[in-house]
Amino acid sequence: MSDNDKTRERCSMGSAAIDEIAAGSAARATCWVMLEQPGAWGRKAVTQSDLDPALGARIDDLVSSVGGRFGLIREPNKRVSESDDKRVLLIAGGLSGEPWLVRGTVTDPAKLERLTPEALSSPTPDAVLALFYRFVVSREAVALVCTNGTRDLCCALEGRPVAIEAAQQRGGLVFETSHTGGHRFAPTGVLLPSGFTFARASAKSVVAAIDAGSMGIIAPDLNDAWHNRGMSALPPEQQVALATVQERLGVARLTGWQLTTLSAEDDRWQIRVRREDTDELVEVIRDTAAGETRPLSCGAEAKLLARWRATII
Fold first, then answer.
1. Under a CB-based contact definition with an 8 Å cutoff, are residues 87 and 107 in contact?
2. Radius of gyration, alpha carbons of the chain
3. 111-135 residue pLDDT tens
4. Which pTM value belongs to this model?
5. What's the CA angle centered on 188, arms 187 and 191, to 5 degrees?
6. In whole angstroms, what is the distance from residue 73 CA to residue 76 CA?
7. Number of helical (H) and strand (E) elements in the chain, helices listed first
């Protein structure tokens, strides 16, 4: 296949061409466990890399058992030969309340087996800190940019340059990551600890996301349905409802929201979104009839894409 053919088939270009909104597409996760792993990554990186595949599978099962996601990270543009025995480990939890992020380094990836479902599900970082000596609670947000080209071509072509440039400005706070879903919205990113997931990122917006996220808010350039994929702890319809309120009312806070689904019938929901002096009722509709047929990732078969519509009542 020629380079021109590959370009024409890239899923991110197709998504942009139909003006597909990103809201409602965030990968679901109640917590995030991200381990630095140099070298090549396969399609399912946690079991297809230089990490022991049996260990990767066990940690993946453990994190998945509480609704979390386990993935691999690496410093942008870092050569394998530059790697040392210390690997960064990021653990984010409390996403349904007050999110927290614990970070440190491990010399042996097997130490991840210290993690327990109770620690990952805890509303505070105390249980994780008790398991990992010298780990600390991060006061700064960290951005993960998907660059796994084995999983999707767009993530490599679009994501890697963004991660490299952003890391030059916010060293130690930007990592390449193995998979965040939503390839067609590349470059995609996840902000920890909040689980805020964003689309069509630039290096500038990644830097802004980190700076704003460290203050508990969404960067202005990401506060719209084109970029805001949603909060990972929420189901898709609630992701759409919250993103709608955040954008249309200019209430860009990342945390402290209370969402209640008051009614759900077929592909229509009424969701109450509250935070301090904000109290809105949002009707969300998932319209499959209005969608278009497009590949969800490069080289995949075309599927019908539903259209999300949201109205503040």
1. yes
2. 19
3. 999 999 999 999 999 999 999 989 9
4. 0.90
5. 135
6. 9
7. 9, 16
